[in-house]
Amino acid sequence: PAPAPSGSALTNNGATVNWHSQKLKHVVDSGDFNRAAVDVVFKEALKMEKVKPNTKESKVLSGYIMSTLFYEPSTRTRLSFESAMSRLGGTVLSTESAGEYSSAAKGETLEDTVRTVEAYADCIVIRHFQEGSAKRAAAVASVPILNAGDGPGQHPTQALLDLYTIQREIGRLEGIKVGMVGDLANGRTVRSLCMLLSMYNDVQVYFVAPEVVKMRDDVKAYLTARGIKWTEASDLHEVAADADVLYQTRIQRERFLDMNEYAAARGKYIIDKDLMRILKPTAVVMHPLPRVDEITTDVDSDPRAAYFRQARNGLYVRMALLKLCLADGHPDIPL
Amino acid sequence: PAPAPSGSALTNNGATVNWHSQKLKHVVDSGDFNRAAVDVVFKEALKMEKVKPNTKESKVLSGYIMSTLFYEPSTRTRLSFESAMSRLGGTVLSTESAGEYSSAAKGETLEDTVRTVEAYADCIVIRHFQEGSAKRAAAVASVPILNAGDGPGQHPTQALLDLYTIQREIGRLEGIKVGMVGDLANGRTVRSLCMLLSMYNDVQVYFVAPEVVKMRDDVKAYLTARGIKWTEASDLHEVAADADVLYQTRIQRERFLDMNEYAAARGKYIIDKDLMRILKPTAVVMHPLPRVDEITTDVDSDPRAAYFRQARNGLYVRMALLKLCLADGHPDIPL
Amino acid sequence: PAPAPSGSALTNNGATVNWHSQKLKHVVDSGDFNRAAVDVVFKEALKMEKVKPNTKESKVLSGYIMSTLFYEPSTRTRLSFESAMSRLGGTVLSTESAGEYSSAAKGETLEDTVRTVEAYADCIVIRHFQEGSAKRAAAVASVPILNAGDGPGQHPTQALLDLYTIQREIGRLEGIKVGMVGDLANGRTVRSLCMLLSMYNDVQVYFVAPEVVKMRDDVKAYLTARGIKWTEASDLHEVAADADVLYQTRIQRERFLDMNEYAAARGKYIIDKDLMRILKPTAVVMHPLPRVDEITTDVDSDPRAAYFRQARNGLYVRMALLKLCLADGHPDIPL
C-alpha cells in the first residue's frame, strides 16, 4: 500500500519497529501492527478463548506483575486488562485515578512516573488524557507499555479487538463490507478500525453520520491512498441491507455545545428491531460500548447483536497481547 | 409461618428460587434464604473459620475471579468480600467507585455494565445506591451476583453475618431475646435481621429507639404475622437485664434536618460500662459498625462485646457464600 | 550515643521494643531501628534483590494478605508496598483513598477501623495525614502495622530505603559525607535520614537550604548530642565537591503563602550537568521523588544519578520488612 499521510494517528510504522527478540515490545499504536503482526495476535487470541482455569496455559504469566496507570477513569478497559492478566496467572497492581492521586499533582512528569513504576511492575498499562502519552512512556520505559487510550489519540487494543471480532463473527477480513454509524468525527474506534481494515483487500466502508459529526477527511484520504472503497451514505436502511458489519457508535454529548443539535444527531441513526429485519442473516451489529440508546435493548437478544461478544473478545485480545509482551519464546513473531 | 406482606424488602420467596443445580445462584435478598438454606450457609461458614493458609481448603476458589462493582463507597464491606475471595485462593478485580468513574457517567445502564463485566469475572459483588439494583443485575447476569447493599433495600450478607454471630455467640437461635437499639427506622440491618429471626421459634424482640427513629410498622406487621413477639420499650436498662443480645446501631446524622433533634436522638441510648453491669453474663453486645459513640470504648475489652468478632464473622459468611456460589459439588444444598 | 531529646519524631526507643519472638512486630518509627535491626533489614533486602519469579523465595508470603489503608493518596508508596507483597507471593487488598470513602466519613475512629481490617488482612500498611496515627494503629492492632507516612511525622520505610541506598551505592555508612539540599525545614525524609545516620561513626552532614526552609534546630541538636558533625553551607558547589552523597529534595509549593518566595527558593539550588562536573566520580545524587525541576533531566543518564535505583531499593527494603513482619523463623533478629 501507499505510504500513510502525515498525522500521528494515521502513521503506519510497520510492525517490525514494534517487536524485539521473541517478544512484543510495546502496544502503543495500532499503526504499528502490519498484517503479519495482526495474524500472530489473532492466532494467540484464539488460543486464549480456550484457556481454562487451573491449567498450565492459565499460569503462563505467573510471577509477572502488571500495573495499570490510569490518569483518566475507564472501568471497562481497566477491568478488561486486569482480568486478562489474572486469567493468565499474573498479578495486578491497580491505579484507578493516577491523575488525581499520584505524584502528577506535585508536578512529576509522566516519564519520571514511568521510570519509577517500572521498578514495581513487569509491564504498565497506561491511559492518559493527552495524545502521545503512551509513546512518551514507551520512549523511557524498560518494560512493555500497553496503551489503553491516550486522549484523542490511539486505543490500539480496542482497534485490534474490533478487527478480531469481525474476523471471528464473519470468518474473514478480505472483501468485508462495514457500515460505520454515528459519531464518526470524534469516534477514535472507527478511525482506528478504518486504518486496520485498509490492510485487507476489497474492503468496502460506508460512513453513516449526522452532518455535524461526519468522518474526517484525513481518514478518507488514508483509505483512498490505500485503494479502499468508501462511500458516505445518509440512508442507514440501504447500508444495513448491504453490510456484513454495522458498527454503531455513541454520539458523545460532551462534544456538543448546542443541546438541540445533540438531540438531533443522537436520534438520527438508531439500530432497532425494524432495522434488524433489513440486516442480512449473516451480518452482525457491533458497538464499542458504552451504549446509550443508539441500539435499542430489544436488539440484544438477536443472535446478530455481537457487542457483548465483542467486549469478551477484548479480554482474549488483551490476554494475547500481554502474553506476547511478557512470556518467553514466541517463535511465531515476525522479526 | 404466614406468607410475607407485600414490599420488596420483606418478601420471602423461599430459598428454592435461589439455588440451581449444586450451586447458590445469586445472593440478592436475605428473604430468599429459608431455614434450610441458612443452615447450609452457616455449616459452611463454620468450616471457613478453620481454613488455614496454603492448605487445599484455602485454594478451593483458585482460578476464579470476583469483581467488586461499588457504585457507592464502602471500604469495610468491599475489603471483607475481597479478603473472603483471597482467603479461598480466588482473584479480585476491584472497583472502589464505579459510579464516579465508570461508563455509568456516560449513560450506560446497570444491565449493560453487568453484561460487560461478566466477561471479566466469575462473580460480581455489587453495591449500589438504588434499591432493587442487585435484583436487576441478577436478572441479566450469567454469573452469580452478590448484593453488597442496594441503597435502602437489601444487604443480605450483613443480615446473614448478624444471624450467624447470634448463633455462634449464644449457641442457638430458637427462643432468643434480642434488644434492637438506636436508629430502627432507617437501620437496614435491624430490619433484615428481624426478617431472618422470624424463621425461628419463640423469638422475642425489643425495640428501643428514640421517638423520631422508631421501628416502622411494616416490620412490626411482618413479625406479628409470623407469630414473633415484639415489644417497644423506652428503658434500655430493663431490656438489657432480659436480653440475650443487645444489637446497637448508629444514629445516622445524614437522616436529620434538625441537628438538635439529632443530638437528642444520638445521646439517648448509649451502651457503657454501667449498662454492661446489668447485662447478663451470657449475653452479648453487637453492632454492625461503624460506631460513633453509641457504645463507649471502655466496653470494648468486655468479653461480651461481640462487635469486632461480628465483623470477623462477616469474612466467614462471605467465604461460605462465595464458595457456595462458585465451587462445584455441594451435596448439602437443598434443591 | 546520648539519649534522644524529646519530640516523637526524634525519639529512639531502641529496636528491642519493636521485635517480638522471631518476627518484626511493627514498622512505625525509624527511631525504633537500632544498628543491629538495620543490619538485619539490610541483609534481608540484599537477598530480596535476587528473588526471581516462580522460585521458592518468591512465595515466602504465599497465603498472607496485606491491606493498604491510605487516608492520603500516594500512588508511589502504595504501589511499592503492593509490588513488594506481590513479589513475595502475598495477596493485596487495596484502598486508594480510605479517608474519602471509608467509615471515617461516618465518624469511625482509626482504632475501630484497624480492629475491623485486621480481621481481613495479616498486616496493614497505613498512610494517614495525622502525625502519630501509625502508633495509634499499632497500639490496638493484633497484626503488624507498617507506617507508610503519617503526616509530618514518620515515614520509616523511606528513611530505611534512603540509608540502604547509601550503603549500596557507596559501600559503607561509617565516615560518609552527605549534603542535604532543598526544603530541609519540611522535608520529612531528610529529618529521618539524619536520625538514622547518627548511629554511624564519623558521619558529616551538610545542610544546603534556602533561608526560609532551613533545617530546624531540633535535628541539629539531635545530631550534636550524638557527636555527628554538621555544617550549614550556602554554596552547593563547595558541598558537591566534598560530598559522597547529594540528597536533593523538592521545594514544597504547598508550604508557601508568597509565590515569589517560593519561586526564589525553588530556583536556588539546582543539580544540573554543570554541578555534576564538580561531583566526585564515586559520589551519587539521591532524591526521594517526585522531582519537579530541582534536578535537571539531563542528569538522569549520568551513572551517578541514583534516584531511580533508590526507588527500586524501596521495593527491596519493603519486601524485607514484610518478610520480617510476617514469615516465620528469622533466627537473625536480635531479641
Explain this structure:
The structure is a homotrimer of 335-residue chains. The first copy, chain A, is α/β, with parallel strands linked by helices and 335 residues long. Chain A is 37% helix and 14% strand. In chain A, the strands form three sheets. In chain A, strands 9-8-7-10-11 form a five-stranded parallel sheet, with helices on both faces. In chain A, strands 4-3-5-6 form a four-stranded parallel sheet, with helices on both faces. In chain A, strands 1-2 form a two-stranded antiparallel sheet. Chain A is globular, with a radius of gyration of 20 Å. The N terminus of chain A is likely disordered. At the B-C interface, helix 2 and helix 12 of B face helix 3 and helix 4 of C.
Distance between the termini of chain A: 20 Å
Low-confidence stretches of chain A: 1-17
Shape of chain A, please? Answer: globular
The secondary-structure element order of chain A is EEHEHEHHEHEHEHEHEHEHHEH
Radius of gyration of chain A: 20 Å
Query: What's the multimeric state?
Result: homotrimer
Query: What share of residues of chain A is helical?
Result: 25-40%
> Roughly what is the average pLDDT of chain A, rounded to an integer?
89
Total beta strand runs of chain A: 11
Please give the structural blueprint:
The structure is a homotrimer of 335-residue chains.
Chain A: E1 19-20, E2 23-24, H1 35-48, E3 65-70, H2 75-87, E4 91-93, H3 98-101, H4 110-117, E5 123-128, H5 133-140, E6 145-150, H6 156-170, E7 177-181, H7 188-197, E8 204-208, H8 217-225, E9 229-232, H9 236-242, E10 245-248, H10 259-268, H11 273-278, E11 284-286, H12 307-326
Parallel strand pairs in A: 3-4, 3-5, 5-6, 7-8, 7-10, 8-9, 10-11
Antiparallel strand pairs in A: 1-2
